[in-house]
Write a structure and sequence with these properties.
With 60 residues, the chain is mainly alpha-helical. 37% of the residues lie in helices and 0% in strands.
Length: 60
């Protein structure tokens, strides 16, 4: 595969409607009793393990 060429046009958005900064607020769902089971690192690791299993099985 060859190298992909791209041109950065500047600005803080990649496309129309893009949001440059996303802030998530879990206060409302936590007020309903939701509690997280995994931190970010654990959640990412678990997701990657699942995706690798699907990839090896030919499902991705």
């Amino acid at each position: 595969p060859g190298a992909v060429e791209f041109e950065y046009s500047g600005g803080d958005r990649g496309w129309k409607g893009d949001v440059p900064v996303v802030r998530l607020d879990s206060n409302r769902i936590r007020s309903l009793g939701w509690v997280y089971r995994f931190n970010s690192r654990q959640a990412l690791r678990d997701s990657m393990i699942g995706m690798m299993a699907d990839f090896k099985a030919g499902r991705l």
